[in-house]
């Protein structure tokens, strides 16, 4: 779980870096940064499913916070979910090749 949490931190720092106005990142770079976060959250959901209860609960809280923060930033930047999904669909998770976890998909659909 520690490795996944570190990957999440890196993905969030990357998003912060590309959204910095000084970076002048292209829309494509921003979308790819959000796609990377989605990939990490997908792997994190797999790890949460097999983690001990307290570890899983804490990790789920962290994942939820990261998701809602990213979703808010995506909306602020005018980035559509479909743009992010287009970059994510190439990713194959270790648990069967889902694009993103079902739980993550339900959050977008809510």
Explain what you see.
The chain has 110 residues and is mainly alpha-helical. The chain has one domain. It contains five helices and no strands. The longest helix is centred in the middle third of the chain and has 25 residues, at 53-77.
Q: Quick recap of the structure?
A:
This protein is mainly alpha-helical and 110 residues long. Helix content is 75%, strand content 0%.
Indicate the structural class: mainly alpha
**How many structural domains in the coordinates?**
1
Could you give the order of the helices and strands? Answer: HHHHH
Helical segment tally?
Answer: 5
- How many strands, what sense, and barrel or not for the largest sheet? none
> pLDDT average, as an integer?
79
Low-confidence parts, pLDDT < 50 over ≥5 residues?
Answer: 92-110
Strand content: under 5%
Tell the overall outline.
Answer: elongated
How far apart are the first and last residues' alpha carbons, in Å? 27 Å
How many beta-strand segments?
A: 0
Computed CA radius of gyration, to the nearest angstrom: 14 Å
